[in-house]
Amino acid sequence: MPTYAYACKSCGHAFDAVQSFSDPSLTECPECGGPLRKQYGSIGVTFNGSGFYRTDSRAASGASGSSPASSSSGASAPAPAAS
After folding, report:
1. Mean pLDDT for the stretch of residues 44-70
2. Residue 83's pLDDT is what?
3. C-alpha to C-alpha distance for 75 and 81, rounded to whole angstroms
């Protein structure tokens, strides 16, 4: 069930409430009885892992046929230029 943040318009009391999607919004402050407003903050979705890349779900295309991850096997760094 989602957690919603509320703040009182009268006294400023802020608290979180765990409610179902079908539950009605709270309207009365538990501290002073004043009107409440629902606070909206950051989204509740977190992406964990190494990341998402534009090549993750695409088929290999092009003439080279090698992916960036496989090209590092056996490749050495270029030698520095002589000055």
Report:
1. 64
2. 58
3. 18
Q: Indicate if the alpha-carbon torsion angle 34, 35, 41, 47 is positive or negative.
A: positive
Interior/surface letters 44-65, b for 16+ CB within 10 angstroms, e for the rest: eeeeeeeeeeeeeeeeeeeeee
Could you give the 3-state DSSP secondary structure of residue 65? Answer: coil
**5/16 Cα distance (integer angstroms):** 4
Using CA atoms, how far residue 61 sits from 18, 29, 64, 73, in Å, is: 48, 59, 8, 20
Which amino acid type is present at position 8? C
Q: Give the span between the Cα atoms of 71 and 60, in whole angstroms.
A: 14
**Structure tokens that stand for 19 in this block:** 């409610």
Secondary structure of residue 70 in the 3-state scheme: helix
pTM of the model: 0.48
